[in-house]
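Sanity check

After download, print the first record. It should look like this:
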Amino acid sequence: MENHVPGFWSGKRVVVTGGAGFLGSFVCERLLACGAKGLIVPRRKDCDLTEAAAVRKLYADARPDVLIHLAAEVGGIGANQAKPGRFFYANLAMGLQLIEEGRKFGLKKFLQVGTVCAYPKFAPVPFQEDDIWNGYPEETNAPYGIAKKALLVMLQAYRQQYGFNGIYLLPVNLYGPRDNFDPASSHVIPALIRKCGDARRRGAESITCWGTGAASREFLFVKDCAEGIVLAAERYDGAAPVNLGSGREISIQGLVALIAGLTGFAGRVEWDAGKPDGQPRRCLNVERARRLFGFQAQVSLEEGLKETIAWYRDNKDER
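Expected structure tokens:
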């Protein structure tokens, strides 16, 4: 509990949108461990966050002191290519309604989780928060990234005009237990874990991966991200966006080799260079989070992958 503000959550009512999802479930667990009692998690079937009336009712019923906005429509490169309009609309509309209705309600603090997809395609590595406007995002997920980035502008404008206390975090690619392992919509780590696990079980001689393997990524274990979000909610009240990451970069080729080894798949890896690599590199400068609210990732990629693979085998793998 080092770096936490003692008693911060005592007596506070907290809404976590997306609190039943992958990241949200860990954020809720972390909040409970830090003493939060009044947690409210709206569910999509009961509350359409893209509709103003539903969001207005949420504030009226829940009466939160703090709202942590994690709900999003997300997916990998394929999903972003298939549904760019929906990803733009849904992600912009949810944030738009939650911020405006939160302002009118008198919410004390709003925490928006953005996306590393907001960064320019060719941002200098490691990505610095101040570079976020210096170019257009990678094309395959630009609609999603720009929708989320627009909410940063909205929060800064509302802070300036209304004194609305909204903060904005930029987590890098997440992974961990409870992730989405659906091959149609999953991100790279769960997709590779499933692909290697299936191939091992079938005795396949090879697997095929998208792109060339030359692109690089940084990954943050989901439990580390949840810790960073809770720390920021307690300790940060500024207008500037803040990266959340591990500070370690790995090529997709290296990642595939690591996951193949940990899952026990010993076959060949073939690359489909006709499929997109996505953004060439992703690695964050994580100094601002350490300096402003004491966050540093604790779980190595190898440790996190072992825990994720063990969870997948216990819960999803059809052995």
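If your output differs, re-run the checksum step. Summary of this record's structure: The domain at 13-179+219-247+283-298 is CATH 3.40.50.720 (Rossmann fold).
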